[in-house]
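Researcher: Re-running this chain for the archive, since the previous output was lost when a drive failed. Same request as before.
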Amino acid sequence: MKQALSNASISAKLMILIGVLVLTPIVLLFWYPEEASYLLYFVIPGGLSILLGIGILLFQICRKQAVRKPDWKTSLGHSSLTVLFAWSWGVLIGALPFYLSGQLTFVQSIFEAVSGWTTTGLSVIDVRVTPVLYLFHRSFMQYCGGLGFIMVMILFISSKDSMNLYSAEGHPDKIMPNIKKTAQAIFIIYNICLVLGTIAYRIAGMSWFDGICHSMCSLSTGGFSTRLNSIGEYNSLSIEIITIVLMLIGTTNFAALILLARGKVKSFCRVSEVRFMFLLLVIFIPPTAFSLANGLGISLGEGFQRATFDIVSAMSTTGYSTMSYAEWPQFAIGVLILMMIIGGGIGSTAGGLKLSRVYLLLRVAGVNIKHKLSPARSIQAPKYTKASGKSAIDHTLVDETTGFLVLYLVIYTIGTLALTLTANCTLTEAMFDFASSLSTVGLSIGITNPTTPPAALIVEIIGMFLGRLEIFIVLVGITSGFHILFHKKREKSM
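Model: Regenerated structure tokens:
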């Protein structure tokens, strides 16, 4: 009974939270009173979500004794279904301001909201004519989506189910003694970086509004911009450097950032995925810079500048760009696709396969090669260093990682082929944009824009959703939903 009640109560609290988040942009009316005509388009969906959440909470309190715990429930299924509901509801409520105001079609509105909450950054909006409230709404969705609905909820309300929900949303590390303190520590670091990033952008020449929007989207590795040509429109090296720093912070595991914030620099540098991230940058930036210099006829120095920014943007799954990719050499395009698929740190705001999974598989492959070359030699099981210390790479971890990789590549292949059909584009273009969707990056080679067909947008929506919620959570949540329906039908028939 308590578990069933908790499920409905948590969902209701999440609905209230989502309503508050969607109402937040109206605060800007104090500075932009000329946009008061858009007020209702935020009040209606935000207020509806809050009222429905309050109604469900009151209803559950009244029928507390009538609730019975179904015997099919498992902790993972319960948590996954709750997380899946929260994100689905958030997408719907976040999309309504665009749709109600007539700025976008329904499919485009859903696409923009999914891209926002999942911190992807692909967009079908023309930012040149979009009101300030909506530009802030997009950026704020990415900022909150980077933390996650469950993380934000735990800041204010925690329960015995909080740890399961926290893990189900893609946060593997409990850094502090309890889950609420962990969420608070992450929230404090996140917001300190937001303030410092905004100030740095302002000093570098951005307006306060552009600074806070870009800071939110850099830290969340989201990539929405208030400018048509993204970061490239500013043509500023200092702004690019600030963005690179914020993107690297956003793509780093929150647990590792805690070590850095505590001054444990050596411990931070020992974390395997942090070392692996910088190793990848050292390996891929130089050849990409040479490729750009030769292919685009630019200087080697500018080639390094472009390569560094865009590779960090791709690997961190942020999606900011400094120039069009239409004329980029195929080698450089290939590197970006690879970086998008690898992605950022696990437990961060980034998407993709995640650095730790790729690192684990490479370590295991290395051990297997050594064993084949020296079968008689005893080889120790490989280890890797997390923020919490060293851990052995056991068979269970390898099986889980391999399973995720195979499923990811299957979905990537199907999504790429589906995009070639629905967007009528080349295979390379489809590979690029679907990698961007599935890894929640936001870079586009040009096929994702306001004129993209609805069917292609739906393919990308599915990719973004699966990428943000780590595939298995979506599958387990959907399965749990079917179990609910089956159980209710069986009860009625009895």
